[in-house]
# Entry
Amino acid sequence: MTITLKYFGSLADITKLREEQFTFDEETILVSTLKSKIESSYQNMQNTAYTIAVNQTMSDLQTKISDKDVVAFLPPFAGG
# Structure
């Protein structure tokens, strides 16, 4: 399966990317698996607070990711 990852705000600064493609052998993976893989690739993300959305829906670590899903890594929002 191939998924699209999008990074916003300070997370785009850490990864030096706005978007990238990831390919996995599995048909589905959990957000927790992806999070571990990303934090291994971009170790500064381990010390950064962020949330993850799958197909524009906020997710938890047990959310399943499937082929062609879009996963967004979102820094904390502030404002009013």
DSSP finds two helices and seven strands in the chain. Helices lie at 10-15, 31-41. Strands lie at 2-7, 19-23, 28-30, 51-54, 57-58, 64-66, 70-74.
